[in-house]
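Let us practice reading a record.
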Amino acid sequence: NQDVHGTSVTQFLTHQFNTPISDTWRVGFRYGWQWGGDVVEGYGNYTFIVNLDMLDSKRNRYRVAVHQGILLDGAPDRLVEIQRIRGGGPVALLAQGKGYNHAGWKGLAAPEPALYPIRLERGQGGVLTAYRDTKSGWEAVATATDKTYSVFSQIRLGASGWNTSEIPQLDDVQVTVAP
């Protein structure tokens, strides 16, 4: 899916769970951008961000923030962030890791959208792990342990930092609650 309305406002897709989830869960999605980044070098833009939030009933949440890339600075180890956010307030960075660092698919003259898989898991003991797909398997890119929030009632997926020409694309959003 993509937003073709072209706005710089952060927009979200939101789903309220029928029954709140806790303990262990996994959320995965694929994302991409039509434009943005340096098409000559192929690097993405750090200000283009896809956010996936798992929220509790008070808007407290864990977030995986995925930056499109880092223009030419060669530090892709900070493109995926795990954050803890209290209500609408302060953000605590829990961990950072590698991302994909690619410019938008149309800017690279690709024939079709390039969508990159990301997964966030919460395991036993409050262990949060963000993964990216390396085509040969899932690679853990950021891990943090945090037990501040434990029951989640909503998932929210959105994009920020873009304007009328970049257009984010999101697909294959899946939530799995582990037994």
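A brief commentary: Confidence is low (pLDDT under 50) at residues 1-8.
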